[in-house]
Amino acid sequence: MVLEFDPNKSKVRQLADAIRTAISSGEYKEGDALPSINKISSEHGLARDTVYKAFQDLKEKGIIESAPTKGYFVSNTVNNIFVLLDIFSPYKDNFYKELTANLPLNYKLDLYFHHYNKRSFNHMILDSIGRYDLYLITNLTNDIYSDVLDRLDNSKVLLVDLGKFKKDKFSYVCQGFDTTLYDCLTSGLSKLKKYKEIDFIIKPDSEHPSSSIPYFIQFCEDNGFRYKFIESDFGYSDITPGTVYLTANHNDMIKMVKLCRSLNYKLGEDVGLITFNDAPMLEVIENGITVISTDFRQMGKLAAEYIKTRNKIQTYIPTKLICRGSL
Question: Is 324 inside a domain boundary?
Fold first, then answer.
């Protein structure tokens, strides 16, 4: 076990992380005795209390145990997984629930969210180095690779959800946002034809990938639809019968439903409504909200399989149009 202490971090935490890494790498196997508190203290110049606290931390996590005649020993091989997602949402909740449901109890997941904040994203990844067996990460954006990922062992990283950038050295389970939008709208063309115009409600600073916009334009032009983009806060004057509204997020979708109710416009007849990313609530709002979505549960299952087998995976989860009453 190699120890090189960073003076800016807690020695207790660094020692606990080093022991946990040694267990994960197989240096100490289940049932093996660990060096005594006195031995670690003398070999690494640490106070006995520091070593004791590190052992207690590992004991509380179920990684090691102690017995009067055995001292401290490895109780179970615990796999520590770093999970960094973009935001909490109903569809990411589906992903996480499916992920955890398909993992044995000896896998411990630490869940974080970066909220598209570059400083937080970089800090959390840098702070995680050496502390985890595997890393599941949703990149900061869909279109631009984050260089901080180069600090991680790419054989231990699974990129999830976003990832239009070049990522051949990583495992990934992602969704598409470009041609998939064109294909999804094409699959619903028979229902869309009863409308004359399709308006895309997407703000300039939207987290939804802007790379989907050219494919939206191409679909409208190929199929004879008028179209426009609504980028600022919209209101009653923006809603016109005979128009389908495509909303980039659920907040705008809910606002559109409320405005249509106030105007006595019936969804699926007077106006159409499509949003992205399925969630249970979308099945019950009005007569159901039509959605363009990938299967986040399937994404969670594949992520769990990667964690258990550590077999490299590189796949895109299909995206489809789920037609409901709003179209």
Answer: no
